[in-house]
Amino acid sequence: MAKVTIDDITIEVPDGTSILEAARIIGGDIAPPAMCYYSKLKTSGGYCRTCIVKVEQGSAKDPRPMPKPVASCRTTVMDGMVVRNITSPENLEARAGVVEFLLLNHPLDCPICDQAGECDLQDLAYKHGEEETRYQFPRREFEPEDIGPYIKLNMNRCILCYRCVKVADQITDGRCHGVVNRGEVSQISTYIEQAIDNDFSGNMIDVCPVGALTDKTFRFKSRVWYTKPVDAHRDCPKCSGKVRLWYQGEEVLRVTGRKDQWGEIENNEDGSTAWICNDCRFDKKETKDWVIEGPTHVNRRSVISANHYEGLAAIKADTLRMLGSQPHGVKVDLGEGALDPNNE
Amino acid sequence: MSKKLLLKNDHIEGIHTLPIYRANGGYSVLEKALKTMSPEAILEEVKTSGLRGRGGAGFPTGLKWSFLAKPEGVPRYLVCNADESEPGTLKDRYLMERHPHILIEGMIVSSFALGAKTSYIYIRGEYFYIARILEIAIKEAYEAGFLGKNIQGSGYDLDLYVQVGAGAYICGEETALLESLEGKRGNPRIKPPFPAIAGLYGCPTVVNNVETIAAVVPILEMGGAEYAKIGTEKSTGTKLISASGHINKPGVYEIELGIPVEEFIYSEEYCGGISGGKKLKAVVAGGSSVPILPAELILKTSAGEPRMMSYESLGDGGFLTGTMLGSGGFIVMDEDTSIVKNLYTFARFYHHESCGQCSPCREGTGWMEKILLKILDGRGDMKDIDLLWDIQSKIEGKTICPLGEAAAWPVAAAIRHFRSEFEEYIQYPEKIRDIKHYYRLQETATA
Q1: A94–B398: do the CB atoms touch at under 8 Å?
Q2: Which residue from A71, A178, A183 is facing B355, i.e. has the nearest CB?
Q3: pTM for the full predicted model
Q4: What is the mean pLDDT of chain B?
Q5: The domain made up of A134-215 is a member of CATH 3.30.70.20
Q6: Taking Cα atoms as reference points, which of B176, B168, B218 lies closest to residue B195?
Q7: d(Cα B151, Cα B140) in Å, to the nearest integer?
Q8: For residue A193, what pLDDT is reported?
Q9: Considering only residues 155 to 184 of chain A, which have any Cβ-Cβ distance to chain B shorter than 8 Å?
Q10: CA distance A337 to chain B (A)
Q11: What CATH code is assigned to A2-102?
């Protein structure tokens, strides 16, 4: 076991735990945001740099601070380590810099993006981003590419987290897409112009932190916050069959895996990850296909949550209170001749 | 006459062939080491010699070797980093082209010291003709019994291979090099684990620069203690410097570490002064990524002491008033050089070579290049200088590999020492704008 202090809170975690996992055990705002790290995928993380933290003391044995900020998702804790995340203004500034870089070439087309409302980059930008960009140049654009009948790839939104590549590597039987080209123009693509056709390829949509990979069967059908999530399961020969159905009225618009509070797919009882197959995701879109378990508990942070409606209720209450002093039917004095079209 | 170790036989015709190399004392170190020395003894000699990595970082080689994990039943590898791609650096090319056998001898002795049975020379794609020279030299060494099974009857086996890269700057970073050597995309790995624990194919690996490995030969020839007497206390031995730019005699020079920078630039033995009798403006002392220094700071430190060609003297004053010896790519600029144009060239290079794996470098390098092009074009704004400063500070130290720093340092140093020049570009665009040059820049940018 190793004792680690993160933002003045000390906990004991097993050896080999990453700083980020230790911070998630503490929870709350102390857990650094992660755009590329995905605990269910091996070797993920380290690319986006949003989870950087400052290590003030390397370990009890070697108390020197680490010279540079480290990626907390790929740095394991040492006994006696002292880490600063949100209590270091310097670290928050460095993170804001990373967020600026991530948003630099991002199209910010949230109003037409299916991911809006459940987008990690959106949350990150709200929390750490600036109001305006300092980038004065045209944004990078990629040629649209068709990667198959189920998944829509929009490369302009991609932040190159490599999660979908790891999904294809680790849970499907044969990866036919990857990162091609180098540097600024590197992009997710198939080699060459193949369709991604695999029973588990749909999980790429679930792991994508932005709207780069979205569900073609849900495309432009609704907004996430208009749909109601319901947990359901079915006896599926290929996968665990544990899903979340997204209803609008009586209609199932979308089927996804069940995500936990960190935006990752939940585990089965036996500890394996409850990835779902493409049959469950794209073909079973009727209530009769499923055994309904009940409405999903939605994180309060999310715009899909009840919190959102509570917010609306507060606005409604305020409005009613204002109207209370000025009931309906009161004439508002606009001044003489205000509505006369001949009046200049 | 200065001390020469690596290039002491440079004048001999045909030194790249094995018979002539042997006739001039070549492979005697190998015979001595394999027959009379233990691997531990060789490591001790290298440690005593104080040899520091010649690739750029200057990490003590003996220490690096001693970090190598030695688990039972797992192969160990020595990889020679011949992916010399830092702009301004051409020393390894010179050494490999003219003295391939000193590298091969160094590889054999170092592999013996580390217990490696297979070793690789990873050479950049643009050096394909040198790869051929090395392959011919390796073939000669196999035929003479210096490579293969039971080398010179010592019972030690070694296979040496040359692997040609595809010409990416990033593959000079040791973990990206290992990825590329394994046949994957040349992306740097996230450290830890370091290559000494899990390197090539997950096995313990040492990656050393060409010049470092070649320097092991003279060290064993004269003994580590004798080698340590050359140079200064913290920078021992000799170093190959690739001098380029506005000097009378550009080329590769072997210097004893610790000679004054002024002597190196102005003496007839080395660079021979600034070409055209002009004045010195600035020097990039160790390859394009190290901070540029103006003439007054490169010749003398901020304390007024003469600056020496050594790791510690060039590093004196940190990055505020100092720089780094780096890989020894010594770029001299005369008074007519535009620092802004030069910086744009560097920024364009790093933008092009960024691997795109982590976000600060992928997005930031392109942004800096675009701002510099805008300033060069005469559309700059005073705020752009501060913006450049801010971008570089947000890249530096936030990336997976040192390419981020390599891209950020030149920008920081140019603004730190030559801010007035940026301001002039912004204030008087019509005076500076050179339409032909601008269109050339635009053409290359769109191409």
Answers
A1: yes
A2: A183
A3: 0.90
A4: 93
A5: yes
A6: B176
A7: 14
A8: 76
A9: 159-160, 178-179, 181-184
A10: 51
A11: 3.10.20.740
